[in-house]
Amino acid sequence: MTLDIKICGLKTDAAMAAALTGGASHVGFIFFAKSPRYVEPAEAGRLRQAAAGKAKAVAVTVDATDAFLDEIVAKMHPDMLQLHGSETPARVAELKARYGLPVMKAVSVSEAADLERIKPYAGIADRFMFDAKPPKGSELPGGNGVAFDWRVLAGLDAGLDYMLSGGLNAANVGDALRLANPPGLDISSGVESAPGVKDPALIEQFFRAVRAARDDRAA
Ligand SMILES: O=C(O)c1ccccc1NCC(=O)[C@H](O)[C@H](O)COP(=O)(O)O
């Protein structure tokens, strides 16, 4: 089974190069002003050029207005939108029609019952991201470096397309793969030396850990 890996919150050429060298299938750019990972749409458009033909460029937004999304799409040319706010199924459908881009809808999870929330998006969202709920007091809906109990994902329909996200790092990614066997992984804080500062060495280490875990499982 192929495993997609999204490195999220890229802001520098060095981090982008490390993500692509490692074999990222997706690279993410954050368009949420309060985030330490925020990039201007035009800068994301410059950075994403390195990924052309190698990885899909994902624009991460939070309840964004049409005007801001228009700017992002015009300047960054994303391959996919990641909606990380409280976008309704109707809003997801509207944005898919407006931009003709696939949409990954983020859903925050702390227990199995939270997975029920994907039902109204069936046939609308192209993919889901299961991320941890933000800790109390956090201003960020994502990128908090906290994990949820991945075992709740084990009972999902085998055909469901999603990324497991939240609190991943080189030390725990093997457990995530073993417990949930997800079709995709997403990571941000776990490859940073400080909030918003991606560390190419940690990115390389993460990919090495993923490969080692997959080799172990295949053996
Ligand atoms: O990363 C952010 O700062 C962010 C801000 C606002 C909305 C979403 C955000 N990140 C979305 C992602 O896809 C992150 O990679 C995901 O939440 C996992 O983050 P982490 O737990 O730090 O690995």
From TrEMBL:
Alphabetized InterPro entries for the sequence: Aldolase_TIM (IPR013785), PRAI_dom (IPR001240), RibuloseP-bd_barrel (IPR011060), TrpF_fam (IPR044643)
TM region positions: none
Provide the alphabetized UniProt keywords: Amino-acid biosynthesis, Aromatic amino acid biosynthesis, Isomerase, Tryptophan biosynthesis
GO biological-process terms attached to the record: L-tryptophan biosynthetic process
Top-level lineage group: Bacteria
Q: Which family does it belong to?
A: Belongs to the TrpF family.
- Which named protein is this? N-(5'-phosphoribosyl)anthranilate isomerase
Q: Source species, please?
A: Mesorhizobium tamadayense
Q: Which gene encodes it?
A: trpF
